[in-house]
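Homework-ish question, so no full write-ups if that breaks the rules, but can someone show me the predicted structure for this set?
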Amino acid sequence: GAVVSQHPSWVICKSGTSVKIECRSLDFQATTMFWYRQFPKQSLMLMATSNEGSKATYEQGVEKDKFLINHASLTLSTLTVTSAHPEDSSFYICSARQEEAFFGQGTRLTVV
Amino acid sequence: RKEVEQDPGPFNVPEGATVAFNCTYSNSASQSFFWYRQDCRKEPKLLMSVYSSGNEDGRFTAQLNRASQYISLLIRDSKLSDSATYLCVVSDSGTYKYIFGTGTRLKVLA
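A: Not a homework solution, just the prediction itself:
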């Protein structure tokens, strides 16, 4: 079946540095991918919709300059958390759809 | 009001029990409905889609009531391996966005 691969699965970084997370659709092309964030014991919250070849669409309250999204090809979207701070520590998950949504394995980001 | 609401639980049930989860959604234009399962520190995985006529997959039955904007999931003969968080997901056909409920935690006890 279709698979979405996300990398890295976990990362620890220092406050003020930037972290890039990759999301790949392995056996299908995805013109649209979605990025979610999940804090402990909370729901997945949609951050932005990544559109191949055009700008991402951000949800209300999500800073586009802080969470940079690039969707340069039909199989790859990247999310860069710039100048990360401890409050950005969370579980970040990407998703791509065929008939159903498939999710990447998630990236657990810890900012120290 | 949240777009998708679920009772967070936890529901602690003995093996073999039948348990039901409910979910309500606020957007009457929603077109697609799903139940996802999420294990601790893992990504969500599709359990089943939910259709207006109701659908069943083995021990799992999902129902949709559009008039009441209500979705349910019934699990019969619970297994220890059913322990997880069950996420109600709603999507509208225009945006393809998935809106997740907070999830309902289930713990099946031996």
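Now go work out the reasoning yourself. Hint: Residues 83 and 107 of chain B are 5 Å apart (CA to CA).
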